[in-house]
Structures are given as C-alpha cells and as structure tokens.
Design a protein that fits this description.
Blueprint (H helix, E strand, L loop, with lengths): L1 H14 L6 E3 L2 E3 L3 E8 L5 E9 L7 E6 L4 E5 L9 E8 L6 E11 L6 E10 L4
Parallel strand pairs: 3-9
Antiparallel strand pairs: 1-2, 2-4, 4-7, 5-8, 6-7, 8-9
Length: 130
C-alpha cells in the first residue's frame, strides 16, 4: 500500500498547474478551468469569471468568445486591455438541463495570438429538494 502513495501524490501535484494561472503569449489567464462542483438544478443559474492580464507590450483585445452550448452565455471586456491591465470574461451557466455532469467549452479569440485559448466551466448538476 505504501508503495502507491508516492506515485499518487506526484500525480496529484502534477495536475495542479492545469487549473492554475497560465500564460498564452501576451495574455495570462488566472485559470483555464472553473469547477462549480455539485450544484442543485433548483438553485438556478450560476456564474463565474475568468481574468485575463495583458503581459505584453501593446494593447490586447478579446475579439470573441464562442460557447459550445446555448446554456452558457458570456460577457467580456470589449475595450483594449492596456499592457499591465486586466480584463474579464464573465460566464453564466443556466443550470436548467440536469441532472448530469457538464463540461462546457469557451473558445477565446485574442489579438496578438495565432490560436484561440480554450476555457472550461464544469460541474455536476443534480436534482434535489430546495
């Protein structure tokens, strides 16, 4: 049993940076995954935000954010993000289609980047008494 503890601990430590701050060229996101955990469908819509920092030397613009489902809506900073400044991507998940696990993808198109950045909102919706 003891021989399995170290490999499992190392695996868990290696998985931590995936949800932590991440750089994409001149853009730094505070996270790429937001996990709502367990949410009751009777509680209604849930929201979260992703923060993007301009770590480059010229203005950064969020051109578009595309969602994979009509159950997820987004609002984002529409003005240029100056070097050293921050913008946000606000996400609302309607939470009215469960119960089931969900993982919704957001494709973010930014100026100064050749490829889009992929963000995720996920969780487990369940039906329960309010």
């Amino acid at each position: 049993m003891k021989k399995y503890i170290l490999p499992i601990a190392l695996f868990l430590l290696a998985a931590l940076p995936a949800a932590a701050q991440k750089d994409f060229g001149s853009a730094r996101f505070d996270r790429t995954v937001y996990d709502f955990g367990k949410i009751n469908t009777k509680d209604g819509a849930v929201s979260c935000s992703f923060e993007v920092s301009n770590i480059g030397d010229k203005p950064l613009n969020i051109f578009a954010v595309i969602t994979t489902c009509g159950c997820t809506s987004v609002k984002w900073t529409r003005t240029d993000i100056a070097p050293g400044a921050k913008g946000t991507i606000d996400v609302t998940y309607t939470n009215d289609e469960g119960p089931y696990p969900f993982d919704k993808t957001l494709t973010v198109y930014l100026s100064d980047l050749d490829k889009p950045v992929i963000l995720h909102v996920k969780g487990m919706a369940y039906k329960g008494k309010k």
